């Protein structure tokens, strides 16, 4: 089974975007066990379907990445992609100046921290300029949030990001058309493994939050693992449908 794993913050708050350092260390031990291959996101689609492989992604570039993640990945030699909100670098995850209920407001990496991650061999991806819901933007705003993010990261780090993560996982066909033109790959929050015919602009990911209990990740690819993913995915679809229905009332 091939899949992209999503991480956000490594902290002890227990929030939906948080994983404890103890749990993350257990994940890294699993990655180093040889049970699965850890490959760059760019390479994952070319890995054979019958091989167990993972690509690691980290959304938002939380500052705790530098202390809790970078040393472990560098020690093991594991590749990863960090998706950066370009205009929030050095700030916090209070997107638009607003805190999110249930989510801790935490500091984000500075450009110097991102340079250190690049020097360690990690990839910097784009996550928009300001972290908006891209499906609610005008064409000009959408262009600014995607291409503008690329240009800012290039000007600061000297490398042009080739991969993109949709803020909040929000994407429609209009948004996907734009990201296909700007990026080689774009990732969603659709909860499932990678399939051989996936659109490069709509790649699914597995949220690591669902594997926070001991043994969850170690069952990788088993029938029980796949069944649990399917159940989780159905639950998310129902919640999304209820939310959309509520908005339409």
Number of strands: 10
Largest sheet features: 6 strands, parallel
Q: Architecture, according to CATH?
A: Alpha-Beta Barrel
CATH topology: TIM Barrel
CA distance, first residue to last residue: 40 Å
Gyration radius (Cα, Å) is 17 Å
Helix percentage: 25-40%
Give the CATH class: Alpha Beta
Secondary-structure-derived class: alpha/beta
The total of helices stands at 7
Write down the overall mean pLDDT. Answer: 94
> What is the number of independent domains?
1
Overview of the structural elements:
- It is built from seven helices and ten strands.
- The chain is an alpha/beta fold.
- It has one domain (2-215): TIM Barrel (Alpha-Beta Barrel), CATH 3.20.20.
- The strands form three sheets. Strands 1, 4, 5, 6, 7 and 10 form a six-stranded parallel beta sheet that branches. A two-stranded parallel ribbon has the order 2-3. A two-stranded parallel sheet has the order 8-9.
- Helix 4 (111-119) links the parallel strand 6 and strand 7.
- The longest helix has 26 residues, at 223-248.
- It is globular.
């Amino acid at each position: 089974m091939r899949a992209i794993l999503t991480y956000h913050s490594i902290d002890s708050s227990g929030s939906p975007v948080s994983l404890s350092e103890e749990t993350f260390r257990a994940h890294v031990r699993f990655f180093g066990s040889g049970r699965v291959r850890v490959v760059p996101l760019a390479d994952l689609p070319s890995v054979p379907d019958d091989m167990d492989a993972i690509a690691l992604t980290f959304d938002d570039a939380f500052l705790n990445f530098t202390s809790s993640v970078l040393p472990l990945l560098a020690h093991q030699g594991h590749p990863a992609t960090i998706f950066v909100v370009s205009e929030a670098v050095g700030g916090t995850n209070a997107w638009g100046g607003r805190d999110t209920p249930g989510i801790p407001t935490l500091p984000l990496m500075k450009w110097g921290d991102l340079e250190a991650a690049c020097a360690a061999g990690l990839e910097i991806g784009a996550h928009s300029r300001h972290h908006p819901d891209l499906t609610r933007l005008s064409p000009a705003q959408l262009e600014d949030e995607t291409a503008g993010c690329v240009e800012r990261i290039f000007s600061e780090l000297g490398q042009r990001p080739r991969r993109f993560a949709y803020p909040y996982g929000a994407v429609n066909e209009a948004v996907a058309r734009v990201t296909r033109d700007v990026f080689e790959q774009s990732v969603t929050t659709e909860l499932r493994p990678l399939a051989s015919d996936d659109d490069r602009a709509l790649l699914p990911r597995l949220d690591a939050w669902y594997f926070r209990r001991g043994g969850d990740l170690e069952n990788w690819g088993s029938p029980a693992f796949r069944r649990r993913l399917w159940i989780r995915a159905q639950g998310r679809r129902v919640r999304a449908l209820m939310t959309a229905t509520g908005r339409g009332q």
